[in-house]
């Protein structure tokens, strides 16, 4: 039988995301997080919530998750997700993504300009 808690623990540890930070994001204590790791029947909703926080897709390891994941994606933002969107980590993530896209765009513009000069 698959021990869901152990799978989640392994993913969290491999992600480098700290247990303290995870506990804060979930609004729980560190002890609660360790209790989740010890639970072989960890609820799918909890697994998905942790997956969103650490940016990990558990659907390949836990097949039943994919149907729950599709359903949850359609739901509106709950209060915790809204707090996440407003958090500084998310702002930093989107800022970095924007800068990366801006660099790619500038590179394409430079290539286009070079091609025009050759013509």
Q: Termini, distance in Å?
A: 65 Å
Number of strands: 0
Low-confidence stretches: none
The SSE string, one letter per element, is HHHHHHH
Give the DSSP E fraction (strand runs of 2 or more residues).
Answer: under 5%
The residue-averaged pLDDT reads: 81
Structural class: mainly alpha
- Based on Cα principal axes, name the global outline: elongated
Count of the domains:
2
Largest sheet, in brief, is: none
Fraction of residues in helix: over 70%
Which radius of gyration do the C-alpha atoms yield?
A: 20 Å
Total helical segments: 7
Describe this structure in words.
The chain is mostly helical. It folds into 2 domains: 73 residues; 33 residues. The chain is elongated, with a radius of gyration of 20 Å. 10% of the residues are buried. The model has no long low-confidence stretch (mean pLDDT 81).
In short:
By secondary structure, the protein is mainly α.
Labels describing this entry:
single chain; 119 residues; mainly alpha; 7 helices; 0% strand; Lambda_DNA-bd_dom_sf
Give me the secondary-structure topology:
Layout: H1 4-15, H2 19-26, H3 30-37, H4 44-54, H5 65-74, H6 79-86, H7 88-118
């Amino acid at each position: 039988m698959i021990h869901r808690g152990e799978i989640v623990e392994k993913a969290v540890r491999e992600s480098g995301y700290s247990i303290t930070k995870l506990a804060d994001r979930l609004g729980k204590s560190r002890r609660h997080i360790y209790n989740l790791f010890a639970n072989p029947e960890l609820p799918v909703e909890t697994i998905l919530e942790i997956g969103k926080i650490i940016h990990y897709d558990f659907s390949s390891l836990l097949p039943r998750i994919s149907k729950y994941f599709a359903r949850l994606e359609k739901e509106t933002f709950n209060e915790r997700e809204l707090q996440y969107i407003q958090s500084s980590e998310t702002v930093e993530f989107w800022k970095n993504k924007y800068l990366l896209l801006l660099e790619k765009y500038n590179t394409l513009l430079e290539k286009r300009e070079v091609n025009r000069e050759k013509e």
